[in-house]
Amino acid sequence: MSGILDGKRILITGVLMESSIAFHAAKVAQEQGAEVILTAFPRPTLTERIAKKLPKPAKVIELDVTSTEHLDRLADLVRDELGSLDGVVHSIGFAPQDALGGNFLNTPFESVSTAMHVSAFSLKSLTMACLPLMSEGGSVVGLTFDAQFAWPQYDWMGPAKAALEATSRYLARDLGKQSIRCNLISAGPIGSMAAKSIPGFGELAEVWNTRSPLAWDMADPEPAGRGIVALLSDFFPKTTGEIVHVDGGVHMMGA
Ligand SMILES: NC(=O)c1ccc[n+]([C@@H]2O[C@H](COP(=O)([O-])OP(=O)(O)OC[C@H]3O[C@@H](n4cnc5c(N)ncnc54)[C@H](O)[C@@H]3O)[C@@H](O)[C@H]2O)c1
């Protein structure tokens, strides 16, 4: 049976647990025919353990997206394994505890700076690190949590996601000439490690129980994974700088 990623080579960041959105992107990508390479943070051994649960084997490369050394060596390591890339998935987010959970007015700039570096600037760093491998064009896909709104508890991750969304549009602008598309999935709440590290995220997620037109399951990251794979495929050939909501429809509800 043919898949929508047949013959494509995809680098996927952010596989930490089975609850990671990236794990489901990798699973669906392999099911759809892609060859997948994973990057790992903080330890390759953790990601290697989870990668064993994928339908097919996937090589794991260590990558702290704030490390210039790791970014500089990434292209060579990926080239040795796959030769080139057709797609890159940025599934990375982090903010220090004092930037989350209701401390917005008191968060020091050092913590804001870390959140911005890891969660937003890294989309540019990762894309540029992979650029030498995408000479035939490609698709870059990242993950946001709708940054049009001021959410409770989400605090400085909100401005970090707004920066990510803008960064994606600027990358789309500057890389279009090289046939590289850059798009985001705006996902509804998923009970991953990143979400659990936000105090009170469960209460925020309850909004989906009452407002989502489509039934929403926080324990199911697969819809987001399928959205990522769709954007990696050739079925969005002229779409770039776009944000596709995989949120059950909450983003468009008035009340
Ligand atoms: N869980 C949600 O409700 C939700 C909703 C919308 C968007 N998102 C976004 O989806 C993406 C993936 O998150 P997730 O929910 O799957 O959680 P997750 O905890 O499984 O994934 C977050 C990933 O970020 C990686 N990471 C953190 N710091 C890093 C660094 N310095 N270098 C490289 N990688 C680093 C972690 O290793 C981890 O794999 C994030 O961008 C997150 O903000 C999540």
Descriptive overview:
- By secondary structure, the protein is α/β, with parallel strands linked by helices.
- Helices cover 40% and strands 15% of the residues.
- The chain is built from 8 helices and 7 strands.
- The chain has helices spanning 21-31, 44-51, 68-82, 109-130, 157-175, 193-196, 201-211, 222-232; strands at residues 9-12, 35-40, 59-62, 87-90, 138-144, 180-187, 243-246.
- Strands 3-2-1-4-5-6-7 form a 7-stranded parallel sheet, with helices on both faces.
- Strand 1 (9-12), helix 1 and strand 2 form a beta-alpha-beta unit.
- The longest helix has 22 residues, at 109-130.
- The N and C termini lie far apart (43 Å).
- The model has no long low-confidence stretch (mean pLDDT 97).
- Residues 13-14, 16-17, 20-22, 41, 63-66, 91-94, 118, 143-145, 187, 189-190, 192-195 line the site of nicotinamide-adenine-dinucleotide.
